Amino acid sequence: MLLRSANKDDGYMSEDEGLGNVAADYCAIDGAGKKAKRSLGEMEQEFLAAMTSWYYEGKPIMSDEEFALLKEELIWSGSMVAVLSSDEQRFLEASMAYAKGKPIMSDEEYDGLKAELRNKSSIVTAQGPRCSIRSKKMYSDAEPDYLRMTALNLPGVLFVLGIVFAVDFSTDFGVTRLVELPAPYGPILLWGLLLPSLFTVAYALTQVGFKENLILKAPCPSCGTENFSYFGDVFTVAGARGQNLVECPNCKADMIFDEYKRVVVVAETSEVKQEKLAAAAAKKAAAAAKKKAKAAA
């Protein structure tokens, strides 16, 4: 979508200019002094700045027509900023304001909002593997592994389907005849009664075997290998809750999965573990040598 002609004197007027030229401010000046269309990132920043100015300062920085056109342009460009929820937009606005040295919310509110969005697997909180200069630790974002969590329901689904097939066979395919009734009775029985009942029973059986299950996946902050962690009980055996220690199968680093913050922290790198093992082996060897020397004396 062309928002504005690059040259006012070329005799060309875009469709949007004919509607009042509300897109005039969405052009920038390039190195040659010519008007150039603004980048997607610049338009996203302008959108968030407009939201911040309106909701937190009560001062609009653009007209309603300009804001609507900017939002439409972002949607057509495939930007996710224009279709974010109010909480996601508020989080991005707070992040931008903090980067400019003008925070619009307290640290507690920001951390709470960030944790809430992470629990919803929001893309705005995804940062990837990173290092913290302050804590000197490596972090990575964790997210639910819905594929593996769905696979946990397969035993319950197969068990319920087996019962349905057994009942169908024992009643001389009575269930099949009910499902094959003419519309609307057959489809109502299938989609309104049979399938919801199967899902409910299968889910209940899964909760018996894997109570309050949650599987998180995250790339190892040290080597990037994808790792998984299970939270929840297995039948009567109490499982991990809150935090879980996992060893990376590739680099052997120890990582801590946090169920509530949805982050992974490297507790101990493979190098540190090797140094500790070497120190323990050297200490053991020294103790053995000392004991041997005493025995020889």
UniProtKB/TrEMBL annotation:
InterPro entries linked to this entry: PGRL1
Transmembrane portions of the chain: 146-167, 187-206
Keyword entries, A-Z: Membrane, Transmembrane, Transmembrane helix
Recorded GO CC terms: chloroplast thylakoid membrane
Single GO BP term: photosynthetic electron transport in photosystem I
UniProt keyword Glycoprotein present: no
MF term (GO), any: oxidoreductase activity, acting on iron-sulfur proteins as donors
Coiled coil ranges: none
Protein known as: PGR5-like protein 1A, chloroplastic
Organism (species): Chlamydomonas schloesseri
